[in-house]
Structure formats: C-alpha cells, structure tokens
Design brief:
This protein has 262 residues and is α+β, with helices and mostly antiparallel strands.
Length: 262
C-alpha cells in the first residue's frame, strides 16, 4: 500500500500594481522540496498563469527573489520542511521595495540604472598586476554577489522610506567597495560614495548581510570601511588643518591597500 503524501497549504500573492491578495493553494510535499518547487506545483495543478521569475534553480542567478513570511529569500534556496517542522504557514509575496508587475514578479530595473552611474575600474598601470593574496580575497568576496537584490529589498532606507533618490543601497555599496579597495584602481570614489551614492543614509543595522544568500558581509566588510574612508576624508580635523586634498587621500589609501601583508 502506497503511503499518502503529506500536503500543506501555501498562501501566494496574486495580483498586480492596482490590486491583489493572497490565495491559498494545496501542495503535495516531497522530500527536499523548496518553495520554488511548490510554486511550480501550483502552476502545474492550480494556476498556470501564476507569474514568477526564475532561471537556474541553483541559487546562482538571483532571479527567484521574493519574500517568505515577510523575509527576503531566494525561493530556490528555502526548504519547505523548515516551516512544516515548526507548524508555521508559508506566505509567499513579491519583494516589497520594488514596483509590482504581477504576482511574484517585481520591476528591479532601477538597480540597473543605478549601476550605470558607477564609474568602471580605472587601472593605475597596465595589466597584468601583482597583488597580495589578502587584497584578492577581500575584493573577491564582493564579486560573489549574484544581484538577487535581497539586500536592497530589506534595506530600511529603500524599503520603508522609499529614498531611492538619495541612497543607492547595499548592493552598490558593495560594488563601490570592490572598486575602492582594489589596490590598482586609480579613481577617487569617496566623493561619489558620500554624495551621489548616499552612504551616510545607512544606519548599519546589518540586515543586508543577514539576508545575503552568498554570505557577503556587506555591512562589516564594505559599508563600514567606506564610511571610515569618507569620515577620514571629510571630518578628520588634522587632514582639514593641513589641507590634504583628494589626490593625497587616494594615494594614501591605495598605498595602505598594497601593504596589507607584512
């Protein structure tokens, strides 16, 4: 006799920018099932027109970002059994921070417009470069970003205050850190980070680091060091007294970046 499969009810947001609400769907649960599997089950058995964005189903593309029980997560990386074990119902909704297109699909194009504002890598000398391994490891952490924009979704400045016009968000603080902390990048990025990127709006809650599926320490390794460099440039009394300009600031920090290993 074949054992009956376990079923659960998953509540999925259905609607568009004008209106919508959660709809309950019954889902047969299989071992190892993730929330994206449940969404595919719902599409196959209940609602073929349910809109969801996904691609690799391996937590590499960052496409299936949504909110599960109010928490920004990748649908393909979130197991259903963790909710079943605690008896907590599963509610799947689109990312709150971005404009809703339909169902679980949001318009994240603002992020790509912001990315175009960041000046590309400007080599201080022709490649190939010789770098300390510690410098490579530091910037490689930031390059693990899959642009799922979960950090953008949970950022209080963007999510609750909708201040996209003053703050680029944690994803782009990471990008700026990747460039600013590269020993061979010759650009002066601190003025841009402070003014156009608006790093001063970050209140260092670490929530962006908490939701990053790649484990990037966005706050500790990117935002706080950038804030320190901005403070050194703008508010160091000795620097202001002796009139060290931007070029001296860049040369000083890049020199330190090249000397991280004794």
């Amino acid at each position: 006799m074949t054992a009956l499969k376990e079923t659960t009810t998953i509540y999925v947001y259905r609607g568009d920018a004008s209106s919508g609400q959660e709809q309950p769907y019954s889902v047969e649960v299989s071992p190892g099932m993730v929330v994206l599997d449940a969404i595919h089950y719902i599409q196959a058995h209940h609602a073929r027109d349910l809109a969801v964005r996904w691609n690799c189903k391996a937590a590499h593309c960052g496409s299936c970002s949504a909110e599960i029980n109010g928490r920004p997560k990748l649908l393909c990386k979130t197991r259903i059994d963790q909710y079943l074990a605690s008896g907590v119902p599963i509610h799947v909704r689109p990312m709150k921070t971005f404009p809703l297109i339909r169902d679980l699909v949001t318009d994240v194009s603002w992020n790509y417009r912001v990315a175009k504002k960041i000046a590309p890598f400007e080599p201080a000398e022709p490649a190939p470069f010789t770098l300390f391994q510690r410098d490579v490891d530091r910037i490689q952490e930031f390059r693990r970003c899959i642009e799922c924009f979960l950090c953008q979704d949970i950022c209080h400045v963007l999510r609750d205050h909708h201040d996209q016009n003053v703050y680029m968000g944690p994803r782009f603080m990471t990008k700026l850190a990747e460039l600013e902390m590269h020993p061979m990048d010759a650009s002066d990025r601190i003025a841009f980070t402070t003014q156009q990127a608006g790093i001063g709006w970050c209140n260092v809650t670490h929530c962006c680091s908490d939701v990053c599926p790649e484990g990037i320490q966005i706050t500790g390794n990117a935002i706080i060091p950038l804030k320190e460099r901005a403070a050194d440039r703008n508010w160091d009394p000795l620097r202001r007294l002796f009139g060290h300009g931007p070029s001296a600031h860049v040369a000083e920090h890049k020199s330190k970046d090249r000397q991280k290993i004794d």
